[in-house]
Amino acid sequence: MDTLAELRAGRLAGARRIDLSCGLTEFPREIFDLADSLETLNLSGNALDALPDDLGRLHRLRVLFCSDNRFTRLPESIGQCQALEMVGFKANRIRTVPAAALRLPSLRWLILTDNQIETLPEALGQCTAMQKLMLAGNRLRALPESLAACGRLELLRISANNFEALPAWLLALPRLSWLAGAGNPFDMQAEQAAIAAQSVPHVDWRDLALGQKLGEGASGVIHQAVLGPASRPVAVKLFKGAVTSDGWPHSEMAASIAAGAHPTLIAAQGRIDGHPDGTQGLVMALVDPSFRTLAGPPSLASCTRDVYAADAQWTSAVALRMARDIASAMRHLHARGMLHGDLYAHNILWNAQGGGLLGDFGAAWMTGALDTAQAQALQRLEMRAFGCLLEELLERCSDAPPHTIVVLKDRCLQADASARPSFAEALALLQGELSP
Predict the structure, then answer these.
(1) Which of 108, 222, 347, 386 has its CA at a distance of 20 to 30 angstroms from the CA of residue 3?
(2) Average pLDDT, the chain
(3) Quick one: the chain helix, strand, coil %, rounded to 5?
(4) Please, are residues 91 and 68 in contact by the beta-carbon 8 Å criterion?
């Protein structure tokens, strides 16, 4: 029996989670029968445009997903659910965000990606527990100044909006570590220049033979392939057209091209011309299969921190080598006027002998239109992300790491962003520790 039928038959008493994706046009009132147990409610993938005015009866509700529906207004009634920690309304038609909907003192994670929002209320700044705010793919020109009070905010996505400039207060947030800003007017010229540049060769689609699918993300699909008469093994990424949680796929493509070649960076080696469907794509190096992803992405519980395998462990020498390789890649990007925007273990491939490789430019963007002070402040922001990575690597060392690296981690994580080291400084220290 399907979930909706079981719910209506009263067979889900005591359920803590309900997932309903079955073409709903109205909220099933039987959900209120679970008010004393329900913590996660997933109504994504329906045809809903409203929630009941008495939603607050779900007094234990911590997670609410309503993505891929027909909402044009963020329901005010969610503001009654005081236990809510995560709210997701991605890919709706939302234009209006009432202040009453955001009276959520426990809210840690808000997803409003891919809507039609032009302004947000100052009440957003009252969500002082906020750690993760996803706003890509809207029509925003500004953020509420009240957000400056959200000192716990760590990840912010404002890509694919209408920002002419970054808010000055944004760069002073003490914990902000992952910021995506591509696909805005202030960044558009740099993106267009990167795509128009001849910095990577053009590859004719007919010269490629696609093999097995290696993976698929929000922005595209990656295949194993062979290139040219010599059948050189490569990886091919074919982009989708829709906006993602990070921004536009064409922004990712521009960043991948602008990144340039570096030994510990998985960047573009060529761009594809002549796809029969007009699909854009990139040719990249095929990474040795001995490399594997360092960690999984954040969970609902961890919010902003990656999830490692329970048995993840390495020596301090391996951890230092990985840290050195990633610091080297980041120094290269910053020197080219680029930000990665998503410096996380789940975007790193590693093996014990070969060190680390940094990939995924979905949240990357360029700082060419910003003044020097802003660009440097943004680079120091990414140093905090590196500090989080160092912390995670050091926690899983099987032996005691050098004290200097522990000190480096603390310097990267300090609240005063201007006092954090640069990647050039971090790399020099890591290379010194690894030298024979």
Answers:
(1) 108
(2) 95
(3) 30, 20, 50
(4) yes
> CB count, 10 Å around CB of 335?
13
DSSP string over 358-390: E---TT-EE-TTS-HHHHHHHHHHHHHHHHHHH
CA gap 138, 117 in Å, rounded: 5
At 292, which helix (H) or strand (E)? strand 292-293
Q: What is the pLDDT of residues 92-145, one digit of tens each?
A: 999 999 999 999 999 999 999 999 999 999 999 999 999 999 999 999 999 999
* Distant-in-sequence contacts of 11-19, Cβ < 8 A, 24+ apart: 13/37, 16/40, 17/41, 17/42, 18/42
Q: pLDDT of 180-203, one tens digit each?
A: 999 999 998 889 888 888 788 999
**CB-count exposure of residue 398 (10 Å: 0-12, 13-18, 19+):** exposed
Contacts of 282 (CB under 8 A, 6+ apart): 236, 237, 239, 253, 256, 257, 268, 269, 270, 271, 272
67 φ/ψ sector (left φ>0, alpha ψ -120 to 50, else beta)? beta
In the block, residue with structure tokens 């395998």: 309
pTM of the model: 0.95
Q: CA-CA distance, 425 to 234, in Å (whole number)?
A: 34
What is the rounded CA–CA span in Å between residue 34 and residue 19? 13
- Of 99, 87, 95, the C-alpha closest to 130 is 87
| DSSP β-ladder status, 268-273 and 232-239 | unpaired
Pairing of strands 202-204, 178-180: unpaired
